[in-house]
Amino acid sequence: MAISNDTNNSAAGLRTVPAIALWAIALVALATAGADADIIKKEDMLRGITMTREQCAATPQALWLHVDGQDFCVRYYLSTAGGEGTRPVVFLSGDHFGSVSLKTWQWIPAAKDKNANVTFDPTETNRDIDTDDLMKTADTFSKMAKTTSIYLARMGIGGTSGDHVFRKTLLELHLMNAALDALKQRHGFEGFHLAGQSGGSALVTGLAGMRRDIACAVSGSGPLAKPNDTGSKDPARTLFDPLGVVPSIAQNRSMRFIMVTDAADRTVPIRQQTPFAEKMHRAGRDIPQYFVAAVDEYHHGVIGYTGLVAAGCALGKSDADIAAAVGLMVKRNTAYNELRRKEIAALSKARIASPRSADPPATPAGDPARAGNKRM
After folding, report:
1. Within 13 Å and on the Cβ side, how many CA atoms surround 102?
2. Nearest one of 129, 136, 159, 130 to 37, comparing CA atoms
């Protein structure tokens, strides 16, 4: 048994299509690079990151937390590039690296990983992390939503200590929950907007069910169907079940929960996403689920869309206005995908390049970091 990678009221000025178009285009502007980048080596993340309390205290924007009997140093990347507010947009990334054996809780070697090159590209997920890229993502979300934004590094990656093999477990969920509490205390926030990509969306869902200070929660390509039952009572070896928090989310009418899905997603198929919306409906709460067109080979990277939706929600845009902006981005990305398909076909026919070596002429709309949309 293994687990694979996965990552209201109408507002004035958005009542016409041109205004919506301008808003959508404005929200996908890229941020400038951050400073003092730190390279986090993949070898360190694969073996698990350890830090002392003293090392954590000497690290900028880091939280020392004790959760489920373990100590952690959680790193976060806070940006006010687009404005400041007391309810920041917090982004949780997708899973990194390959599949994990739920029998041994160890990485499955790429050569033996049946998901490699089927549901994810190992070359895109097995890489070092440049913290400058994480800061760029925070900057972009801040500019989109015109408020404070935080890239919250998950357990074992992005500078946060711990072992990433225990991703999407109760331990990681409890750690992210404790981190939000600590951020509120340190910065005086009144609450949060949450956005996730793939595995990060499972955590967003869990946090949305646990907390009452979340205004918007956006799941991008989220594996929200019931995960495998490991039969363990250890929080580090118990996968979180997003479907289990449907009643809590359905009852919390003050929070907007939104899903972003590419129906052709190969990494987290639609059958692992839509059941959540269906169960919400049965619980008496219909939620928006926007169907989009991702631009990566696996149709999984929807960070650009997720940022657009989260920003619209944080800015108080109506579901109809958000849907119109998403539709504009879908149209642009669909055209991009068709152009890329034709170029790849032409190059293949001419026997001068393979699909993997063909570079498209321009970056599509809604891609805050071109490589980032491929991460899970």
Report:
1. 17
2. 130
Angle at CA 214, nearest 5°, toward 306 and 326? Answer: 20
> Could you tell me the domains of the chain?
2-374 (3.40.50.1820)
- Decide: 177 and 69 in contact? Cβ < 8 Å: no
Residues of the chain by 3-state class (helix, strand, coil), percent to 5: 40, 15, 45
354 phi and psi angles, rounded to 5 deg: -100, 165
Query: Alpha-carbon distance 175 to 153, whole Å?
Result: 11
3-state secondary structure of 80: coil
pTM of the model: 0.85
**pLDDT over 90 percentage in the chain:** 75
Q: Tell me how many degrees the CA angle 51-56-60 measures, rounded to the nearest 5.
A: 135
- Secondary structure of residue 26 in the 3-state scheme: helix
Q: Report the DSSP pairing between strands 149-152 and 62-67.
A: unpaired
Are 162 and 48 within 8 A, CB to CB?
yes
DSSP category for residue 177: H
* Cα dihedral 100→106→112→115 (10° resolution): 10
Is-contact 162 175, C-beta < 8 A?
Answer: yes
pLDDT tens digits for 31-87? 333 445 699 999 999 999 999 999 999 999 999 999 999 999 999 999 999 999 999
Contact 266, 300 (CB under 8 A): yes
